[in-house]
Design a protein that fits this description.
Layout lengths: L1 E6 L10 H6 L9 H9 L5 E6 L7 H6 L2 E5 L5 H13 L3 E5 L1 H5 L1 H7 L3 E3 L3 H13 L5 E3 L25 E4 L2 E2 L10 H5 L4 E2 L2 H13 L5 E4 L8 H18 L5 E5 L7 H9 L2 E9 L3 H6 L10 H10 L3 E8 L8 H12 L4 E5 L7 H8 L26 H15 L2 H15 L23 H17 L3 H15 L3 H9 L1 H39 L1
Parallel strand pairs: 1-2, 1-3, 3-4, 4-5, 5-6, 7-10, 10-11, 11-12, 12-13, 13-14
Antiparallel strand pairs: 8-9
């Protein structure tokens, strides 16, 4: 069987970092870990070809070669996935679709023409697909009645990737999260009992990446890396000597809950393994909203203290924020900006609340009749209005969102936060190459001219063209004096503003256009109501 694995396009988004990765000569942030895991599960005798549409185009040769086309992706990739499913069917190909989007909204991929729906987690459902195809079946839906033991998951087929196209690699240690945040679909898709791989299993994946020549950052894409603290500590303790032996070839980042701050041993193990950054779901500084959305873990300790403790341990903090919770008071956007500034968090993901399928929030809003008909599963990302009726005027929420996003990514404010954050980080090994043992000669990459060009562009734009011209050089000199080994990491984060400056304009233009549409529609409806009342 010749199977063509296709990863659909991502729209331009907060996380696409288009300008920043282009500076580094890359085409995408992360590879399709789901599809290379699928490739590892499929029969060895199958011929496989993977095309990530974010880094290369599908060719006629790809289509002609394929007997079966397999898609996987997230809700945000919906437009391109549906388009490519239809194209595959137009060409007479058998189509199988899986992943989070297909699992959450299988009726949409069915309507697009998918023959096979490989839902839930592939360790269980992919063998069902293979069996059906071997029996000559031409359609089917495969569901899992239980959560798979991820310790049985094979090493992903990283060899199928065009490694030079990506700025970071992706691996996974665990699935699931123990918490019950109302808006989160992770616990719907993967459950509240975190399941982990074995330390040996994860290290085998890292060995393969090392042998393939990867020497850059790796994002641990766990839903909550510290969901099972016992197992993650066992893994990190096994990883420390491996990293030392290999000369620290990777820098890691991941996602975790804010209660990471309560476990100093865990943070120390992470920095010992060269974890340089963590994404935290802060959501909002408003305690009432956190309680309403059942994110109780964020109210256990003052959030600002938790963030400072994590950063002081040497782990750069990225944080996610949401506006539009029920009962939220006016000025939520300003409060988020003030909190980000207070905590000196450079990278702050900011979005309006969206109701995702089958979450507790979705179910509650559906019962209350507040989901917007036709918009519940529309294209959901940072440039779309909420897909439900909020408890305060949507145009008020949206305008606060636009204003806050604009303020967060003001070039001077962003640069100031970067500098303050890196001074808090200090000289942790993960941010200071001089603190690590030297890499083996064989582990060193050839000189990257793209990075030299990127440095020149950053220095020109931020040190000459913009209002940051004076502080940029002052901060760089201070970094050189106090943490010269961390300057490369610092400049990499500074460079991200090149993406955010462009993206904040996209957010402003698209959201404000939608606000105008909402106001115009409301005025039209009011006029119709007045005419109807007069006629009556």
């Amino acid at each position: 069987m010749r199977a063509l694995l296709i990863y659909p396009l991502f729209p331009k988004s907060f996380w696409s970092f288009d300008k920043a990765i282009a500076l580094a000569g890359r085409k995408a942030i992360l590879p399709p870990l789901g599809l290379v895991t699928v490739a590892g599960i499929l029969p060895e005798e199958w011929e496989l070809r993977l095309v990530d549409r974010n880094v290369e185009a599908l060719t006629e040769n790809d289509w002609d070669w394929a007997e079966l086309v397999i898609f996987s992706g997230m809700i945000v990739q919906k437009p391109d996935m549906l388009a490519q499913i239809k194209e595959a069917k137009r060409r007479g190909k058998q189509v199988a679709v899986g992943g989070p989007y297909a699992t959450a909204l299988s009726h949409e991929v069915i309507a697009a023409g998918a023959d096979f729906r490989v839902l839930d987690e592939g360790e269980i459902t992919l063998p069902m697909l293979v069996e059906a195809i071997e029996k000559g079946e031409t359609e089917g839906t495969f569901r899992a009645l239980e959560r798979p033991d991820v310790s049985t998951s094979p090493v992903p087929r990283f060899d199928l990737l065009k490694l030079d196209a990506y700025s970071e690699m992706a691996i996974q240690f665990s699935r699931g999260c123990p918490f019950q945040c109302e808006f989160c679909d992770i616990i719907v898709l993967y459950g509240r009992k975190p399941r982990t791989k074995s330390p040996e299993q994860l290290i085998a994946e890292l060995e393969l990446l090392y042998d393939l020549g990867w020497r850059r950052s790796i994002f641990m894409v766990d839903d909550n890396f510290i969901g099972n603290k016992r197992n993650v500590k066992l893994m990190l303790k096994a990883l420390v000597p491996w990293m030392q032996e290999k000369g620290y070839p990777f820098t890691f980042s991941t996602e975790a809950s804010v209660d990471l701050a309560q476990d100093q041993e865990l943070m120390d193990l992470m920095t010992a393994c060269n974890f340089g950054a963590v994404f935290l779901g802060v959501e909002t500084p408003d305690e009432a909203s956190l309680a309403l959305t059942q994110k109780f873990q964020n109210n256990r300790d003052p959030l600002s203290e938790s963030i400072h403790k994590i950063a002081s341990s040497g782990i750069r903090v990225m944080a996610g924020f949401i506006i539009g919770f029920d009962g939220e008071k006016k000025g939520a956007g300003d409060r988020i900006v003030q909190f980000v500034e207070k905590c000196s968090v450079p990278t702050a993901l900011f979005s309006m609340l969206q109701a995702l399928p089958d979450t507790a929030l979705w179910i509650r809003l559906e019962k209350e009749g507040r989901l917007l008909a036709g918009k519940e599963t529309a294209n959901i990302h940072q440039t779309t209005l909420m897909n439900f009726v909020p408890t305060r005027p949507v145009e008020e929420v949206a305008q606060e969102y636009v204003d806050a996003f604009w303020n967060l990514y003001d070039p001077q404010k962003y640069l100031d936060r970067c500098y303050r954050h890196y001074r808090i980080l200090g000289e942790a090994p993960c941010h200071n190459e001089n603190k690590r043992p030297p890499k083996p000669k064989s582990a060193k990459e050839p000189f990257n001219w793209h990075l030299l060009k990127a440095l020149a562009i950053v220095c020109w734009k931020q040190g000459v063209e913009r209002k940051t011209r004076s502080t940029f050089w002052i901060y760089l000199w201070e970094m050189f004096k106090h943490n010269r080994g961390g300057m490369a990491s610092y400049l990499t984060v500074c460079a991200q503003i090149e993406h955010f400056l462009e993206y904040r304009q996209i957010v402003k233009d698209q959201i404000e256009a939608q606000i105008e549409d909402v106001i115009a529609t409301r005025e039209t409806e009011d006029e119709v109501a007045v005419i109807a009342a007069t006629a009556a």
